TrEMBL record:
Domain called SWIM-type: residue spans: 82-116
Biological source species: Lactuca sativa (Garden lettuce)
Keyword NADP: no
Keyword field: Metal-binding, Zinc, Zinc-finger
Pfam families, A to Z: SWIM (PF04434)
GO molecular function annotation: zinc ion binding
Descriptive protein name: SWIM-type domain-containing protein
Length: 163
């Protein structure tokens, strides 16, 4: 995250400190406006990127076969021969994708799809996604907008002795 932010403010780093801070403020205000536009166009409860990630993982389900269902874990076998274990109590998978970004991996999605075929088990894929990816969380964060300070645009004058 820091490298991405540093890459975005490279142009501002060439300026003096105040100019750099002003550049960062302008960049963040533009970013907030872009996020607000994305939120208006988003469909569903998740952010657009998260929706795309889940859709891509759902498309890969035809390569995953489930076997070895236990009470706390399920073994999934991929067509290429790789086996993964998904533990639903810990919300972990041996592929570790779920642990890294807190969006269910394709093994977890395959298992949830299999479990949802049981009429008594009402499993919603969205309850397995971390709350940071929901639009509602975004809306709560957007209220913390950056505001411009009132006053002299160049700041107060300081009586510093010139030596």
């Amino acid at each position: 995250m820091c490298d991405v932010f540093n890459g975005k403010i490279n142009k501002g780093m060439e300026k003096p400190v105040i100019g750099c801070l002003e550049y960062i403020r302008e960049y963040l205000m533009k970013r907030v406006c872009n996020v607000m536009k994305e939120m208006k166009n988003a469909k569903g409860p998740l952010s657009p990127t998260t929706t795309n990630i889940l859709a891509a993982r759902k498309q890969l389900l035809h390569n995953t076969l489930l076997s070895g269902m236990g009470e706390t874990s399920i073994k999934s076998q991929e067509l290429c021969g790789i086996s993964m274990w998904w533990m639903f109590r810990n919300q972990t998978c041996t592929c570790r994708k779920w642990e890294l970004i807190r969006i269910p991996c394709r093994h977890a999605i395959a298992t949830l799809n299999e479990m949802s075929k049981d009429l008594e088990a009402e499993l919603d894929i969205y309850k397995w996604v971390h709350k940071v990816y929901f639009l509602e969380t975004w809306k709560n964060l957007i209220h913390l907008r950056l505001i411009q300070l009132r006053g002299d645009p160049c700041g107060p004058k300081w009586n510093v002795p010139q030596s």
